[in-house]
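User: Show me a protein chain along with its predicted structure.
Assistant: Here is one chain, sequence first, then structure tokens.
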Amino acid sequence: MSIGFIMSYRNILVLSLIGITLLGCGSSVPPAAGVWEVELTTPQGAQQVSLTIVADGSGTLAGGPLGGQTINGISFDGNNVSFDISVAAQGQSLTLSFNGVVDGDSIEGEIDTPLGVSLSFSGSRQ
């Protein structure tokens, strides 16, 4: 065997090991990803909704006063999650901004409204 062949073989082996190591370092699933049963605290009382958050930044919000909502643009920052939805209220479109923190299988947060009212939500992973 020539020295050139041994060096090429060694380089291929080293690059392969680096590639395998990098594959194991891929992005992990955000802690907020999953299906959540959430209670919204509103002026009309507690409302139950189902919140589905997908790791690709999409999701759905179903049930309660918000009906069925498709969510796009969900942002993840560690255990923090945030997203906006638009709802129709008295002939107007209002944007509700959800900001939550995941702690294991629990989620808590606030919903900011354009009316200056903050609502709260909490829930558990299903």
